[in-house]
Amino acid sequence: MPADAGGCGLTAGVSPRALEQAAEWLVRLQDGASSADRAACEIWRASDPQHALAWERAERLLGKLGTLPPQVAMPVLNRAPDAARRNAVTRIVALLLAAPAGWAGWRYAQSQPWAGGIHTAVGEHRTVTLADGTRVTLNTASAIDVRFTAAERLIVLRNGEILVRSGPPRDARPLRVTTDDGIMQPLGTVFNVRRHASSTGLAVLEGAVRITPANNANAAQVISAGSQTRFNQRHVAQPCAAAAALTAWTTGMLLADGMRLDELAAELSRYRNGLLRVDPAVATLRVAGAFPVSDSERTLDMLVSTYPVDAVQRLRGYWITLIPRA
Question: How far is residue 136's CA from residue 164's CA, in Å, rounded to a whole number?
Answer without folding.
Answer: 5
